[in-house]
Amino acid sequence: MRDNTEQSRFELPVDGEIVFADYRRRDRNLAILYVYAPPKLRGTGAAGRLMAEIAAHARAESLKIVPLCSYAGAWLRRHAEHRDLVG
């Protein structure tokens, strides 16, 4: 995963495509605004892998995730091991 700070998004290259999550940082919070997977990657778990990397990044940086995107919120609800990151 790459943190593209210029565009405020995390990017994960998969099979020549880019899965990404737009974000906004404020204090110790990381708001996930939108998660996007190209049509050919939908249903492959690519967006879930990106969210797992974002969760690991947030944990390493002691950040709380604010899931403004419905996909990010649903992913965090499904993965109890990361619920402590929800801010």
Automatic annotation (TrEMBL):
Residues 2-87 form the N-acetyltransferase domain. This is N-acetyltransferase domain-containing protein. Gene3D superfamilies: 3.40.630.30. InterPro entries: Acyl_CoA_acyltransferase, Gcn5-rel_NAT, GNAT_YJDJ. It holds the Pfam family Acetyltransf_CG.
